[in-house]
Structure formats: C-alpha cells, structure tokens
Amino acid sequence: MPRVGAKARIAHFGGGFQDALIVAVRDGGRRVLARDEAGEVLEFALSPATARFMATGPAHGPRLELLGDS
C-alpha cells in the first residue's frame, strides 16, 4: 500500500530508472504523486489490468515501483 514519504523507483520505457518519493496518495491508494530526482512531480494510477502504477497521460509512459521499507 503506498504511503506519503515512501521510497519508490520510476521505471522508464526503454530501461532507465530514477529514485522517487511518494508525496501524495489519493483515491484510496489507487493514485499517487511521486517526486523524481529532478524535483518533477508525476502522477501514477493503478492499472486494474496489470496491478501496476502507470503514469497518467501518454501511452508507454513510465511506471512506478514501490520499494519496501528499509
């Protein structure tokens, strides 16, 4: 379950990764806002088809991977 302040990783289409931080959780945990390394805030929505957080907007956008607490 996503929570504010949790660490995450943005996986870009094509293989690149960025560290991220969850800054907001909405819609009962089905939408999250994450700030990337550059300070940009991206919105991700939970896909019912894949159970993955996918960027809202263009197709083949990045996905968000929630990282476990360390």
Strand content bin: over 45%
Number of helices: 0
What class, by secondary structure content?
mainly beta
Rg calc: 11 Å
Unreliable spans are none
- Order of strands in the sheet with most strands: 1-2-3-4-5-6
Report the biggest beta sheet as strand number plus sense, adding barrel if it closes.
Answer: 6 strands, antiparallel, barrel
Mean pLDDT figure: 91
The general outline is: globular
Q: Would you count the extended β strands for me? A: 6
Level-2 CATH architecture = Roll
- Return the CATH class: Mainly Beta
Q: Which percent range fits the helix content?
A: under 10%
Order of helices and strands: EEEEEE
Fold-level CATH name: SH3 type barrels
Distance between the termini: 15 Å
Q: Would you kindly provide a written description of the structure presented here, covering whatever features stand out?
A:
The chain has a single domain, classed as Roll (SH3 type barrels). Helices cover 0% and strands 49% of the residues. It has no helices and six strands. It has a six-stranded antiparallel beta barrel. A hairpin with a 5-residue loop joins strand 1 and strand 2. The two termini are 15 Å apart. The model has no long low-confidence stretch (mean pLDDT 91).
